[in-house]
Amino acid sequence: MPVGEADKGFSAEKGKVYYLIKGNLTYIDWWHEELGNEPFDHSGILSTYFIRPGLIYGLSDKLNIYINSTLGIRQMHWYGQNESIHHRDETSLTNYINAQGGLMGDSRLILRHLIRKTETGKGFRVYTGYGVTIPSKSVLTSDPFFLDGNEQKEHRHFSLSNGTYNGIIESQIFYRRIENPVFIGGFIFIEKPISESDFGYLPSTVTTISLSTSFMNFDQRESSIDYGLSLVHASQGYWNNLPAPNSKSLTVIPSIGYLFNSILGGISINLQKPLYISGAYASNEGDIEQTSSVWQLSFSMRFLTRSN
């Protein structure tokens, strides 16, 4: 389980089903300078809580299908005593002037071709996958940056979904060994919007390159310490064909995790620290002075059952 990625680095044999659960907490402590008619600093905390149930089913000796869905909440805590049209205490569960609320996030469906699959002992695991992201109704319904030049009014900057169907391409290559490090490899994951949302938003194409390695403790729990490093590039996004501020970014994410077996299945607990190389926190305001500190904590679990 490469640093919390419950669906990566393994496959299901024909007729078998693996059930997966991934939980994620993202904590963003942000600040930006005074803005427009609000001559005071803006700051707050945006917390995101996701649960992603899913499964991997072995269609054949060479094909797996992966399905997951997202349940989640984004919650903004606004610092300061001043009222702002940009920020306030609120969550993604509720509707707002330019947002549809809800609990459901995006879902994914990926068909994987198992090019090589070493289940035990040493050897390569090489997979490719093609799929689609299915959006939810929890979306922004208008441009929160007012790029068309209209007078800025109360608005929200965050939602659970971008509101677009996205094409997915992925490649995985891992090597399993019988001595430390017992698992080495990585994956490339590209998610590209097929078209803009019903409300004129075209999100970034996001490319993730991730490397990881695992060191076994050789104890009764068959536990391991996992290390990872991801590079995430987001291309320019657009609202109504106008470039969206902060949508283009390059982020490095080092991570560390602890994996162990239990009566429930394999469980992984992981800590990530995203670092912006270029760009900025995407849900913040436009091209102004701003800072943010981001931490992510996640857990993953997978267990096997047999199909009838």
Level of helix content? under 10%
Specify the CATH architecture.
Answer: Beta Barrel
Largest sheet: 12 strands, antiparallel, barrel
- Output the radius of gyration: 21 Å
What oligomeric state is this? single chain
**Which structural class best describes the helix and strand composition?**
mainly beta
The first-level CATH class is given as Mainly Beta
Return the string of H and E elements.
EEEEEEEEEEEEEEEEEE
- Cross-sheet strand order for the largest sheet: 1-2-3-6-7-8-9-11-12-15-16-18
Number of helices: 0
End-to-end C-alpha gap: 26 Å
Overall tally of domains: 1
Broad shape: elongated
CATH topology: Porin
Structure explained in plain terms:
This is DUF5723 domain-containing protein. This protein has a single domain, classed as Porin (Beta Barrel), CATH 2.40.160. The two termini are 26 Å apart. It contains no helices and 18 strands. By secondary structure, it is mostly beta strands. The strands form two sheets. It has a twelve-stranded antiparallel barrel with strand order 1-2-3-6-7-8-9-11-12-15-16-18. Strands 10-13-14 form a three-stranded antiparallel sheet, with no helix packed on it.
